[in-house]
């Protein structure tokens, strides 16, 4: 089994990476593979709501969104990490995930997910809330930990000094691994996926 993580910081080895690395190394100890996908620093489009998403994902193919979607479809679980900018997830990560989920969110149903917010000091829990909303609307069970998934640090590498933050990452990984194994065991025992009801989509005015 494999967990795909998104480093939503343009810094490939910053604090968000460090937090995700802690999750990944613990996953490995639990027998689960992982990959940290770098969002990178190249220009990144936001969603323009064109509604032209296809089976292959977003119509815009000049950044990494569709590459990520292809990997996410293959993964068994997803973890999204974001640096906190002005008390919200970075604009970069929100633009990226809006397009990932608007084009392909249904493909991730029943895969467990978790998000991680990393900041110098403030805005972590607000950012964590925003990130978790992608899971809730996509039928994705959310893995928890022994605290909300928050890590503190300013300059790259400082996250490692946040002892409770690192512990929270390791416990998140243990819980996520446990969920993945339970789902696998359920599948092997013949537990069917829920039969999703669709059809009602009301826009409050009719
Ligand atoms: C534009 C910008 C806005 C930021 N806003 C916040 C903030 O609201 N709260 C905070 O505690 N840290 C804030 N920071 C600091 C980063 O969240 C912090 O340095 C974090 O460790 C960066 O993660 P990274 O190394 O993965 O990029 C901000 C940094 C930048 C560049």
TrEMBL record:
Endpoints of the signal sequence: none
GO MF entries: oxidoreductase activity
Keyword Transmembrane helix applies: no
One Pfam family linked to the record: FMN_red
Keyword DNA-binding: no
Keywords: Flavoprotein, FMN
Domain NADPH-dependent FMN reductase-like stretches: 1-152
This protein's name: FMN reductase
Organism annotation: Coprococcus eutactus
């Amino acid at each position: 089994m494999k967990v795909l993580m998104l480093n939503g910081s343009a810094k490939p080895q910053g604090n968000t990476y460090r937090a995700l690395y802690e999750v990944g190394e613990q996953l490995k100890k639990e027998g689960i593979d992982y990959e940290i996908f770098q969002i990178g620093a190249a220009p990144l489009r936001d969603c323009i709501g064109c509604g032209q998403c296809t089976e292959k994902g977003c119509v815009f193919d000049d950044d990494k969104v569709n590459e990520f979607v292809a990997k996410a479809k293959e993964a068994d679980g997803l973890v999204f990490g974001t640096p906190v900018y002005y008390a919200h997830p970075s604009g970069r990560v929100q633009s990226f995930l809006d397009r990932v989920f608007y084009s392909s969110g249904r493909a991730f149903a029943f895969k467990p997910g978790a998000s991680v917010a990393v900041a110098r000091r403030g805005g972590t829990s607000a950012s964590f809330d925003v990130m978790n909303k992608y899971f809730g609307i996509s039928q994705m069970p959310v893995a928890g930990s022994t605290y909300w998934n928050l890590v503190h640090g300013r300059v790259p590498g400082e996250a490692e000094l946040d002892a409770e933050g690192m512990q929270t990452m390791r416990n998140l990984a243990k819980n996520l691994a446990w969920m993945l194994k339970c789902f696998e065991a359920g599948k092997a025992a013949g537990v069917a996926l829920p039969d999703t009801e669709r059809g009602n989509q009301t826009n409050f005015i009719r």
